[in-house]
Amino acid sequence: MMNVIETRKLTKSYGRQEALRGVDLTVKQGEVYGFIGPNGAGKSTTIRIFLGMLRKSGGEAKLLGGDPWQDAVTLHQRLVYVPGDVTLWPNLTGGEVIDFLVGLHGKINPSRRKELLDRFQLDPKKKCRSYSKGNRQKVALVSAFAADAELLILDEPSSGLDPLMEQVFQECISEVKKQGKTVFLSSHILAEVEALCDRVGIIRQGKIVESGTLEELRHLTRTTVTVELAKPTNLNQLQGVHDVSRKEEKWRFSVDANAMDAVMNALAPMGIKSLMAEPPTLEELFMLHYGDKFEGKELN
Ligand code: ADP
């Protein structure tokens, strides 16, 4: 399968400030790739390099087989971009903007346009100056989904959308994925990333610190186990078991991914009456890198 986005040792400095310090990432065709990290990690810088708005300082970046800086004009016919804070022409109506933006990519499909306007509940007759932030996002999203682009680069695209529209957004992403299109999604809404993304890259201080499928990332951390036991003995002393607590008959603790098998074997003779295992959420994975909670824990 073709790599739609590929970077190797990508660097960018703003004067003395090193914003990217060797970013390696690969996004395959048909994939929804989640790009997450705290403020200042380098997400926008990476995206602006992809869009040909910034020139890299070093390393390599390829988009759809081309160079995002040299080939910006041709690449922009094949990709769409939605920023987190959409600015529109105040005197044009939403519909005029949609027609203009989609027109840059080819002929507009009127039934697709109407369908998206209905789904996003957007009135295209209003002037852009009267739109709320959420409605401006909708104009950009309708344009992006109506254009038949191979690659969608979305930077916090659903900021300002209410939960119902967030749902519509997620459905649209699933549909474009089914059509074999590729989505690069930077988002701070971890539930959105969890629901949509095939693979995730976590960026911190200009470097990708983790990447993989959610399942792969989950293996880096701990599963929470809640268990009811007939004869609990020395749970605290089991290898790989942490944070043991008890509420009435139920014991709760976290288990290192590589200790799961041994812990289950140790629990069996204690007479398991009920057991529930919860994988870590993306939020917990994120905290592992950025929060105080897990600070100092070695990752293998
Ligand atoms: P993110 O999008 O993840 O919040 P950015 O890519 O905007 O991160 O920023 C990465 C780093 O580069 C930050 O330390 C930021 O302060 C710095 N930076 C971003 N843009 C500029 C700029 N135009 N001039 C100087 N430093 C910048």
Question: Could you list some keywords that capture this structure?
Answer:
single chain, 300 residues, alpha/beta, Rossmann fold, Alpha-Beta Plaits, 2 domains, 6-stranded mixed β-sheet, 4-stranded antiparallel β-sheet, 13 strands, globular, binds adenosine-5'-diphosphate
- Spell the H/E element sequence: EEEHEHEHHHEHEHEEHEEEHEH
Report the β-strand fraction as a percent range.
Answer: 25-35%
Q: What's the level 1 CATH class of the largest domain? A: Alpha Beta
Strand tally is 13
* CATH architecture descriptor name of the largest domain: 3-Layer(aba) Sandwich
Poorly predicted runs are: 292-300
Arrangement of strands in the largest sheet: 5-6-7-3-8-9
Helical content (DSSP H or I, runs of 4+): 25-40%
Q: What radius of gyration results from the CA coordinates?
A: 23 Å
- Corresponding CATH superfamily of the largest domain: P-loop containing nucleotide triphosphate hydrolases
- Ligand names: adenosine-5'-diphosphate
Q: Which class of secondary structure composition applies to the elements?
A: alpha/beta
Number of domains: 2
Biggest sheet features: 6 strands, mixed
Mean pLDDT over the residues: 91
Pfam families: ABC_tran (PF00005), DrrA1-3_C (PF13732)
Protein name: ABC-2 type transport system ATP-binding protein
Organism: Desulfotruncus arcticus DSM 17038
Domain ABC transporter: 5-230
Would you give an account of this structure?
The chain is an alpha/beta fold. The protein has two domains: 3-217, P-loop containing nucleotide triphosphate hydrolases (Rossmann fold, 3-Layer(aba) Sandwich), CATH 3.40.50.300; 222-279, Alpha-Beta Plaits. Helix content is 31%, strand content 30%. It has ten helices and 13 strands. The protein has helices at residues 43-50, 72-76, 94-103, 110-119, 133-146, 163-178, 190-196, 214-218, 260-267, 282-290, and strands spanning 3-14, 17-28, 32-36, 58-63, 79-82, 151-155, 182-186, 199-204, 207-212, 222-229, 241-247, 250-256, 272-278. The strands form three sheets. A six-stranded mixed sheet has the order 5-6-7-3-8-9, sandwiched between helices. Strands 11-12-10-13 form a four-stranded antiparallel sheet, with helices on one face. Strands 2-1-4 form a three-stranded antiparallel sheet, with helices on one face. A hairpin with a 2-residue loop joins β11 (241-247) and β12. It is globular and about 70 Å long. Adenosine-5'-diphosphate (ADP) binds at residues 14, 17, 19, 37, 39-45.
